[in-house]
Every structure is written in C-alpha cells, then in structure tokens.
Amino acid sequence: MTDDMSPAERYALARQRAAEQATALAPFREMYDFELDPFQIEACKALEAGKGVLVAAPTGSGKTIVGEFAVHLALTQGRKCFYTTPIKALSNQKYSDLVKRYGAAKVGLLTGDNSVNADAPVVVMTTEVLRNMLYAGSTELIGLGYVVMDEVHYLSDRFRGAVWEEVIIHLPESVTLVSLSATVSNAEEFGDWLDTVRGDTEVIVSEHRPVPLWQHVLAGRRMYDLFEEKENRGGTPGTGRREVNPDLVRLARMENSRPMAGRDRRRGRNLREADRERDRRQRSRIWTPSRVEVIERLDAEGLLPAITFIFSRAGCEAAVQQCLYAGLRLNDDAARARVRSIVEERCAAIPDEDLHVLGYFEWLEGLERGIAAHHAGMLPTFKEVVEELFVKGLVKAVFATETLALGINMPARSVVLEKLVKWNGEQHADITPGEYTQLTGRAGRRGIDVEGHAVVLWQRAMDPAALAGLAGTRTYPLRSSFKPSYNMAVNLVSQFGRHRSRELLETSFAQFQADKSVVGISRQVQRNEEGLAGYREAIECHLGDFDEYARLRRELKDRETELAKQGAVQRRAAAAAALERLRPGDVIHVPTGKFAGLALVLDPGTAPGRTDRHRGFDPHEGPRPLVLTAERQVKRLAPIDFPVPVEPLERMRIPKSFNPRSPQSRRDLASALRTKAGHIEPDRHRKSRSAAVDDTEIARLRAAIRAHPCHGCDEREDHARWAERHHRLLRDTRQLERRIEGRTNTIARTFDRICALLTDLDYLHGDEVTEDGRRLARLYGELDLLASECLRDGVWEGLKPAELAACASALVYEARAADEAVAPKLPSGAAKEALAEMVRIWGRLDALEEQHKINQAEGVGQREPDLGFAWAAYRWASGHGLDEVLREIEMPAGDFVRWSKQLIDVLGQIAAAAPAGSTVARNARKAVDGLLRGVVAYSSVG
C-alpha cells in the first residue's frame, strides 16, 4: 500500500507511527492479544491527554480496559491509582486480575474488613472506603493521580448511591477521574455534570455489543425468534427493519384466547397445579417448559453454559434440586474429578463439623453434575467457587438471582429469564428495560462465542409486542439518589464550614438534575398562562360576574365533599374505638377484605406503652389486631378491614401452648373457633342520616346560587365548563410554581435542617464541630446518629462483648420481610435493657426529625433499629456453634456471614469513636474477635 504513496505521504505516515509508538498507549496495547475497539482507544487517548473520561458501554464490551489503562498510566508516571468497585466480590475479582498483570507487590486491596498491601501504588477498594479516606484526610491520598469508578451507574442506588457523588465532589482537583458505566440514556447529561465539577471530561458512548445478541421465546418444544428481519424494498440485505415474529404473535393470540381450565366440573373443586398443567398440555401444543426441559433443550442445541435468572433464592435452590432429581448430568467423569479437586482445595479451611449445616454435600453433588445456584444467601466461599467453575466451563447451568448481573465477570453463551415480573421489596412489578438489558447483557462471551442468546420462557398472557419493546428499548436513565446525612454534615462542616459546604452540595448531580428539570417546568407555566387567558374570555357572561358564580358552585361542592369526609372520619373513629375495646380471645366477624369472615383475636394491637412506630399500632391509623382466621391463617389486619364497628360475637380461651408458627396449633384452634361460633350470624350495620341534609351552610350556598344573575343564563353550563377548566388549569399552574420553588436549593435546604438538628443536639456550634460531633464524624451508616447518641449516653457501658455485639447488630441489620406474628428473640439481662434504651433514644430522635421536617420517606433520617439479628450475634459472639446458631434463627449461611461482617465493621467504628477511658472500645474489639471466627473468618478474601 505504501508503494502507491508519494514520498511526502510515506514520510507523514512514518512520523505518525513514530508519534504513536512514543505514547503510553502503544506498549499498553501490546499487553493484550487482541486489537482494542475504537471506543477503548478513544477513551485511552483522552486519558493520556490529561482529560477525565466517562465511558458508557454494554455489559461485556470491555470498558474495564480503560480503567486498566489508568492503572498503567499511574505506574508509568510514578503516581497512585485507586480502583473502586461497588461490591467486595468485584473488588476481590479486580484485585486478582491486577495482581496477575502487575504482581502482588504493586497491587493492594482495601475493603470494609480486609487490608492487603494498602501502601501499594495501585489499590482496589470499595467506594465507601475511598469516601471514608477523603473525610478522614488520609495520608494515603498523597500522590494519588487517578481514580477509576467501576459501575458508576450505582449512584442511582437509593441506599448507597450518595457515596459515589460524595467521592466525585470531594476528590482533589489534581486527580483524574475515570467513570465506567453501563449503557445509560442520559450519559451526556451525566458527562455535563462531571465537566462542571471535575473539569474537562470526555464522554464516550458505545452501543455496540462485541458479541451479537439473539432474542428468543421458548414455548413448549419450539424456540421462536422474537424478531424477524424485514428487508426494505430495493434495499441491501441486513439493512432492513426488525419486526416482532408474526408466528409468535399468532401463537400468542391463539393461546391467550383459550379458556383457562380453572375447575374440575365433576368434583366442583380447584384442580391441583400439576393437574392443570397436564390438562393444559393435552389441550395445547405449547406450554411453559420446566427447568429441566429448558437445560436439556439448551444442551441439545449447543447453547450452554447458561445462566437462568429466577427472582427468588428459594427458586434457585429448588431449580438445582429439580435437576438433580431428574438425573441431569452435564459433566463427564474427567470434569467431575476436576470439580471435586477444585472444590476440596477451595473449601479445605471449612471445619468438617460445619459442612453438613452449610449443605456442602448437596452443593458438591450439583457442582459435579455441572449445575449450581448463585444468590446472596449462599456462603461467599461457595459463590466464589461457583463463579470460578463457571468461568472454567465446569459448571454449565447456573440458576441465579438478579444480583449476579451487577458487575460479576461471569458471562455465558445463553441467558434465560423465567418471568418478566419480580418482587421489588414492596410489590410484584414488571422488570424495566434497563433491568432486562442488564440481565441479558451476560449472554455472549467475547473471544469464545460467535453470538449470545437471550431466552424468555413462554408464560400465559404473554404479549410478544411488549416483550419486543422491553428488548428493543435502551432507556436506562441515571437518576441521582444523593441525600445529605448526619455524618456527611459534620465531616463537611469540619473541613469547609457551613457556607462552603452548602455550595459544595449545590454541585451534586441531584441538584444538577433538579435545576435542569426546572427549565421544562417553567416553559409549561408559560404555556399554562396563555391557556388561562383564553379560558377567561370564554367564561365572560353578559348577565353578571361568572367568576363569582363559579366560585359559589365550587364552595357548595367543597362543602358537600367535606361533610362526606367528616362522616367517613366519624365512621372510622367508631370502628377504631370498637377495635380498641377488643381483647385476646374475642371472636369477631371481619366485615370486608381478603380475610373477611370469622376470626379469633390473638393480639388487639393496642398494648399499653406502644409507640407510634411499634408493630400493630399507629395512632394515625388505629389498632391493627393480630387474628387467627377460620381458614387457619394468622394475619395482622388493618383498619381498612373494618369500615364499620365490630363487636365480639363470643369469647374463647387461647391455649398457653398456642404457637402461631405451628400449622398444627393453627389447625386445632381454627377448628375450635368454627365449632364455637361458626353458626352465629353477625349483626348488619345500618347507614346513618347524611349530615348534608341539615347543614345551614349548604342551604345558604344553594340559595345564593339560585339568586345569582348568571343562574338564569342560557349558556350557563357552557360557561361553567370553561370556568371549571380555568380553575383546574390555574390549580395545576400553582402546583408547577410550587415545584419550581421546591426544586431550587433542595439539597442545601435539607442540609440546613440536618445542621439545625445537630445544633440542637450539641454536635455543631455554627461552623465549629464539637467533641461529640467529631465522634459522629467517625461513625458511618444508616443509624450514625443513633450510634453516637448511645455512646454519649453510655448505653453500652459495662456490657460484655457478646452483649455489645447484640446491641450493635440493631444498627446494621434490616429484615428482608417483616415478621409481625412473632417478636424477635433477645438476650436477657443488661443486653435486653440496652436494646430497649436504644429504641427509646431512636423514638426521641424520630420526634426531633419530625420537628425539623427531616423526612425518612425521602431517604434522610434514622430508620427504626431492627432487633432481628441480636440473638444470633449474641450466640455467635458467645462461642456457640454454627449449626446451633443457624437453626435458631432460620437464616441462610450467606446472610448470616454478610450481616456478621457488617456488624464487625460497625463494631470497629464504635471502638474507634468510643470516648477515652470507656469500656466500650475494649469490649467492641473483643466482640470483633468473638465474631471473626469459623464461617465468618474464612468466608472470602475481602
């Protein structure tokens, strides 16, 4: 090719090559045995030019190459690089990768409970560790040249996202920031903000997947393509448009029109699920394939290894068991032997007595067959082994919860989604396009697979067009979850003073997005003002002031609505009063709701001394009685279940031996309930006379309306319609104006409220942080202020190490689902008294937050301490065995380890923050020693 060039062109090309060889990028590219993609080269060149970069690219596209180039630049320039990740598993993985490339002497690891070579020039850490270093003014920050923030889209996380913004805002100006994100639809907006707070930042967005992804629907025995390529007329192949597969649309229309086999007419009762499924298969040529059928089908078509996402831990474990019972084997004898060798080596540190309680042998049997589960309830060691075996091709089918999609490097040839609905902590909701993209992004291994496959299992009532919209949408906007906290406030004031701290908070991405949204709202207000002028013309009446007439009509309507509400309030009050009179043993008839019918009161929910946060009672809602229904269910009812007053029909004795968790106990007591009161008919409640009939104000308004001149207008109702539109638009416009006012300086206003509360509690005096405030600055977490108050009040003084562990557990633990039927078991004596005092202090802080308008619903403030892990922490710190502790609390080993490690972290903070001469610091360190043993100590690298 150079033969065709002129001497001048050859000279220019030679100079260009020489210039490229002189860059740091040239030797870096030679470290890889593949060519870098254009987006990677563009980002690396921007970094070498001294710019910050934001790289937004699909999962598996290799954006971490850019982060590794930042490491390379730091080492070349003799500076430091911190590589941050959102979770410890990712930190461990990145640490291992960098050690292989640069050697153990140059790479360190810092997580909440582990420190390896922390003085190294390259340190991998969780984002919280870097935040804490910035607030503490750590000397480790000296010489820091680059910070890589992997998975930076985590700043949308409502629980932890604020940490990412704190780091971005507070990093020294001399540090170059490398932000790596999943594909987000507002990368440019995020880049604009980074440009504002960090200086020159290059935004590189790549939508290209290195391995093409094919979308399928598996229905019965057939795999349907979700999309069909339609060529444009006269167009070249491959340039057409994608449409939903018409075969799939036809199949859905036909199948969804079939009646559901709901009841067996011969027996007149519901069929079992298995019977319904068999009947459906007989009537239809498609069905939802079983988990075993799916894996066998993928294996037959060469589409393994596969990750099947099941949005339930129990579902993942059940899927493995189903495959084992079906005799499924995906490994040959040689692979089985390799699996056993690796597993025994990795798990050698686990004591033999713990293997059974951890389910080791059942887990190993699945691994030997090439099948495994992966979820947060598993022991970290077990999860790491599954990840290692999967990457080596020794595990070919993994059943996982969505947590696996969050950055763990575990790509597969295929990804299977059982359902498109998941529990989000409050309700079952459809997964979002962003979640779908994140999950299916695991399909297709770069350098191994020619293409990846995403398979969605057929479900009755599936809409292929909706699925295509989910698969074809790339809307995953980054939304800030930044909120000031108590710890953040004292740290900021300590470093910058209140005024400068306010200015810093105004630079957050949260405020940046709020300010941008105000522009659109202002435009809408202007359009509304124009509409209001038009409406005013339309309501002009030649007989009089129609505005006044319309106002009278609205006042009449408002008064009627008010009286109706008062009547409803009175009825609710009467119902609440009746509930407050209930006693354990009362037999009642629940008038409405899911549990309508006969019920026995176990707990009226009105015990004396209950606070407004105690389960079972809220003064704004009324009592919430715990009942046993005639159908053997123990449920906490709500006032909405009692629209009318309820009176006891009978009285029954509740046996002292009654256990609400025992099916046999519930069955026996429910049977006695039906025998005792099943024949009694409840009294029917009669409606009372409406208050509107005798109201003088309503009579006055009706008379004024009839006497008004506009009442006789022929176009009265037309004018009234325009007047109502004017009123609604005016109301909407005022709301928009209030939104503009509310979104301006929102973060700073919240910060001011937090500072006012901290001033009341003597943590701040103007720009001065008190001794108590300096202690609060060393306590991180959701309940930082509660922990500080407990230290100040001496609540934990004199507690033994295990008792202190029980109390500290309430600061970190949060149950996945509230268990309202049974109170948590607590250690007795001093620990129980200290826990009760913690709850009382929280109640005082909660009232103070309400006084200062600090709203927990907005993610600011202190949640109620959860005592659900106190007994487990106490028993484990006291030296009891794993089998005994897990059996008592009915908690998966992985959850136990995770909460124990978080407890160890907070105990370390308490030890560091405890007042001089206090017994708390010494006992906190002893509690850490008591907790950091056995399964907790050997659970993971970090």
Word description of this protein:
The protein has 942 residues and is of the alpha/beta class. Helix content is 48%, strand content 13%. It has 34 helices and 30 strands. The strands form eight sheets. An eight-stranded mixed β-sheet has the order 4-3-5-2-6-7-1-8, with helices on both faces. The chain has a seven-stranded mixed β-sheet with strand order 10-9-21-18-15-17-16, sandwiched between helices. Helix 28 packs across helix 32. The longest helix has 35 residues, at 546-580. The model is unreliable at 261-271 and 608-619 (pLDDT under 50).
Largest sheet: 8 strands, mixed
Mean pLDDT figure:
81
Supply Rg: 33 Å
- Span from first to last CA? 54 Å
**Helix content bin:** 40-55%
In one word, what is the shape?
Answer: globular
Beta-strand percent range = 5-15%
User: Major sheet: order of its strands?
Assistant: 4-3-5-2-6-7-1-8
- Low-confidence stretches are 261-271, 608-619
The tally of strands reads: 30
